[in-house]
Write a structure and sequence with these properties.
Length: about 450
């Protein structure tokens, strides 16, 4: 086993060096490794660790030793594509074929990045402190704190593999969801080998049109998937950017599938936090302002709860007051939000320092999902609120049943849950009839009668 993994390590180094992604100790690309990743992703940098680097630190590009190592790849793979299928600042993916004929993806962390990790944190800490000194209203120390917490999670590809298997089991009832199978015998903390998955990025409308994929179906299924993760299980994939979410038609069944990739960073939600978050969204969907205030305060927003509701939903306070499920998104509202975001930046900074750290990655996840919906032109669709409502009802009912002391009380809770889910189904049926040809015909007939 150790010998096989060392050969995979050698393979990784050879491929990385030859494809031009070799990073030297004295190179530091702030645009790539620090500023963008820290700001946009709430600091989820993944970097190779030094102890693994020492195993092949003497291997240099262009030497005979380098080429001799590559010649041993036949022991592991029938073929291995040196040119990466995809590459980012921290890792890249190569396509390979096993001896049993299966095609796999080999995800490799870039060598010699570990030596930069602590420097990146120091640089960001200095920058954050400098900004706070120049502009006292801006407090972004939470960025550095999140970096220190999240970095080890993305460093460990074995952890990523375990996350992938857990979410695959957790959401196995969704036939449309595919998570690539992990090949543990060819994986280490720095190299992850998995089944190769093909498909188009979830924001590629041209790909969907060419392959007959319904964007509304994709958006609805993505909402189902994430509502289940967030509200029911509290185990959330926190990097759903388009490169990590593929869509395709199954070659055999022709059904539409979603392939979820990159499982390095998950947020585990504590039960009390998750339930308060459920109840907050129920209040937001209904337009229950007393509930919005109550659960926003419980989640740490304090007197900034109106701003918190707007940040969470990306809607104006007027829309929140009216109930976000019944108020369509308009261009005027989007312009208002963009304008106010700049005006309220100090308050937003204070809010982010107040809320639990669990909320930070959820906000990032919501933002990425909202970006996908905007691209697909399905933002604020009724189906997304229906799926969220179903999951919230199930989550709250499950919690109540766990606290119930008698069988009668558990039965009451189950009946109440069933009634709530039935109401949602009836509302969903109403929306379907309203939007169907039959609904349009009935509406036209009623108009003529009046």
């Amino acid at each position: 086993m150790a010998g096989r993994l060392l050969k995979v390590s050698s393979l990784a180094t050879a491929a990385l060096a030859s494809s031009g992604f070799y990073l030297h100790n004295r190179q530091l690309d702030l645009n790539d490794l620090s500023l963008i990743r820290f700001g946009r992703a709430a600091v989820t940098t993944a970097i190779i660790s030094y102890d693994y680097l020492t195993s092949f630190k003497t291997i240099e590009y262009g030497t005979e030793e380098y080429w001799s190592l590559r010649s041993k790849l036949s022991e592991l793979f029938v073929s291995f594509e040196e040119s990466p299928q995809g590459a980012a600042s921290l890792a890249q993916v190569h396509k390979a074929v096993l001896h049993d004929g299966r095609t796999v993806a080999v995800k490799v962390q870039h060598p010699k990045v570990q030596t930069q990790s602590s420097k990146d944190i120091v640089v960001m800490e200095v920058l954050v402190r400098a900004v706070h000194w120049l502009f006292p209203d801006f407090a972004f120390m939470w960025l550095v704190e999140e970096a220190k917490k999240n970095m080890p999670l993305e460093l460990d590809f074995l952890n990523e593999g375990r996350n992938a298997e857990r979410v695959a089991r957790m959401l196995a009832h969704f036939s449309f969801l595919k998570v690539p199978e992990i090949h543990w015998d060819l994986s280490t903390k720095r190299i992850l080998t998995m089944d190769f998955a093909q498909g188009g990025q979830v924001n590629d409308r041209d790909y969907m049109r060419r392959h007959g994929i319904n964007v509304n179906e994709i958006s609805e299924n993505l909402g189902k998937m994430y509502s289940e993760m967030i509200f029911v299980h509290g185990f959330v994939h926190c990097d759903p950017h388009p490169g990590n979410v593929l869509v395709r038609k199954c070659p055999q069944s022709k059904n539409t599938e979603i392939v979820l990739l990159d499982h390095g960073l998950y947020q585990v939600l504590q039960p009390d936090f998750r339930l308060d978050y459920c109840r907050l969204w129920q209040s937001l969907i209904r337009g229950d302002m007393s509930g919005v205030e109550r659960y926003s305060r419980r989640l740490g927003a304090g007197d900034l709860y109106p701003l918190f509701a707007c940040v969470l939903t990306a809607r104006s306070w007027t829309a929140v007051n009216s109930g976000i499920s019944s108020t369509p998104v308009t261009h005027t509202e989007d312009v208002e939000i963009r304008t106010n975001a700049a005006l309220y930046l100090p308050q937003i900074s204070e809010l982010l320092n107040r809320v639990p750290r669990q909320m930070l990655l959820l906000l990032k996840t919501n933002d990425l999902l909202r970006g996908i919906e905007t691209t697909l032109q399905t933002r604020a669709a009724s189906s997304s609120f229906i799926n969220m409502s179903r999951c919230c009802i199930r989550a709250v009912a499950r919690h109540k049943r766990s606290k119930a002391r008698t069988r009668t009380r558990r039965l009451q809770i189950t009946l109440s849950e069933s009634f709530g889910l039935w109401q949602i189904s009836m509302y969903e049926l109403f929306l379907w009839v309203k939007g169907s040809a039959l609904g349009c015909w009935v509406a036209a007939l009623l108009g003529l009668l009046h």
